[in-house]
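TA notes. Do not distribute before section.
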Amino acid sequence: LQRFKEDLICNLIFEWVKSTKRRWNRKRNQNSNINYRIIGGILMGKTLVAYFSASGVTAKVADMLADAVGADIYEIRPEVPYTKADLNWMDKKSRSTIEMNDKAFRPALADKDAKIDQYDTIFLGFPIWWYVAPTIINTFLESYDFSGKKIILFATSGGSKFGKTVEELKVSVPATCDIIEGKLLNGKQTIPTIRAWTETLIG
């Protein structure tokens, strides 16, 4: 039993190191011009996976998506991290409830280091909160120039769909930015299943 526990711990550490190394390599390569992909027969250009994850669920999906399409990856982080109490949607006084009840609220970002000008296509991921994207996604969109960019949404949720997400995000980008409602990546996901989805995308 002790040997089994040791092997299990070693395997978990090994997988974490591999995942961390993949993310570091993609971040390191953000200055490279080599990242052009054909998805659904469309030349996507240099691609970025940008995501916000409060609990880690969306982060796992984003990592697989970046691997699936050979994209760079960027984490959208709040200046003040969310606590478990902040995310209690049943509490009318919780931070997330207050933010989502005010459409004009824009949570501050921890950094503005995403080199958006280097990318043509951005897969933008987040958990669904109150049937839409968290307002920190609006903060992110309003912090850069997305003129002429294509944004493909992906999300995780406990059952909610995209609702009016596209509509509420379009107010934060120029008219020339194309936002596409992508897919809810809930449940068990794998790199092959995610890649299969991206291959169905059309321009």
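Switch to the second chain here.
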Amino acid sequence: SSAASDVYKRQGNARPPDRSGRFNAIGCCRFENLCYTSFRRRMPQNTKERRRTQTLEKLKIAVIGAGNIARNAHLPVYAERDDVEIVAICDWNLDRAKEIAAKFNIPHAYTTVEETLEKHPEIEAVDICVWNRSHAPVAIAAAKAGKHILCEKPMAWSVEDAEQMKNAVDEAGVTFMVAVMTRYANESQVLKAEIDSGRLGD
């Protein structure tokens, strides 16, 4: 609409939001790039993180789940990035984990998140790509191990699971983010700016 275009132009952009799914808000063309970049940007800016930003040190990640979403969405995009290293992949089906590890040059494959994180303490974050019902136990295990978490949507199978995940994350003091693909889309940024300015909402 012309109103949406006017709002967008007020934010200093040359054209209305691209509705094709190729977001350009932070230089990303697919939602996995966008989720990963926003996740990294939201991580605590401690001394180690600032040093990584300055030296382009790779963020070490374990991908939990070797199914379709990992195989066809997350891993292909990680492979294009020069600031991330996939240390290990974990799946209950070891043969599938090994197959994906070979395809994406991932050095290690395991069947449990606990074993993955125990054997590789250098891992800093996990990307949860398992079935919805398994999000909670994986996230809780990762939080207890002190790892930051990017979790596929929906966050949890139930409200109770979500509350347990939140408690584990709060107690561990790690960053948790649900991979909502529109979080930093142009439309979302424009809407947030309108709300913050007081032009929308109460």
